Amino acid sequence: MKIGALEAGGTKMVCAVGQEDGTILEQISIPTTTPEETIPRILSYFRGKEIEALGVAAFGPVDVKPDSPSYGHILDTPKVAWRHCDLLGQLKSALPIPMGLDTDVNGSCLGEMTYGCAKGLDSVIYITIGTGVGVGVCSGGKLVHGMLHPEGGHILLTRHPQDPKGGICPYHKNCLEGFACGPSIEARWGKKAADLKDAPLVWEIESYYIAQALTDYIMILSPQKIILGGGVMHQEQLFPLIRSKVKEFIGGYLNTPELNDLDNYIVPASLGGDQGIMGCIKLGLDALC
Ligand code: ADP
Ligand code: ZN
User: Fold this and answer.
1) How far from the centroid of its chain's Cα atoms is residue 55's Cα?
2) Which-ligand-closest: CA of 189?
3) CA of 252 to the centre of ligand 2 (A)
4) Which of 16, 141, 163, 226 could form a Cys-Cys staple with 122, CB 3.0–4.6 A?
5) pLDDT single digits (tens) 94-112
6) Which residue's CA lies nearest to atom 11 of ligand 1?
7) C-alpha of residue 248 to centroid of ligand 1, in Å
């Protein structure tokens, strides 16, 4: 059985055809420009591929509540051309197959839970630290939406005493995304994050922010595993720094087998960058039932 997968990102649209076991048979990437230009290109890719369903994981904010009048619409995004675009509706009117939709980060979380390092677990969070920071949450086997969907990148944190710049989020002076996303690192140090590998203070500050956030997620959501992806997490030296600070911030208050094995609790994404598109395959499969 062939399933279509669309990872709808702010810079590119990854379109793929995959199978139930997560195998990706083929995939292409289309730059995200305007809906008028981009959606027809997505549709022309999927037409004639004999897919039985399509799973879509979209950048947000996006309406993921099936009973809402604006289900499948992109909401008030800074990407003006996509504001209030009925993404799912346009796909549905051209492709008469079942479709599943969730946020990009919930998609990656689902990919890891179905095909990756979080198989068999039911409460997992997936955090991407890249151009922005997003958090996908699965709790008790359900991807969490709530009133809209979690915006875990914008939780408020304490500024590091040696942070010379602070946060760059236009909405919040001291949120995780503003402090820790790739562009924030670049604004703070005047160099690309990828070129700062040998500057220890950069990663000391970065890990301080990420560890504060993880501690809060742990206290509120009690996840069984925390997966970290996105461009910034290519800096592998972050993992031990984050783990030791999480341990410090929890302060011995919790004592679980998971927290006593932090190397297997706070982990990198395991699917080599395909966690998002593989999550879309699962969203498509779930739309069939
Ligand atoms: P997006 O978030 O747009 O989907 P990415 O997850 O690739 O894309 O994140 C891009 C961000 O990650 C950029 O700000 C970039 O500076 C940063 N980045 C990419 N590669 C690295 C790296 N090797 N080390 C540190 N930061 C990186
Ligand atoms: Zn913010």
Assistant:
1) 15
2) 1
3) 29
4) 141
5) 999 999 999 999 999 999 9
6) 130
7) 27
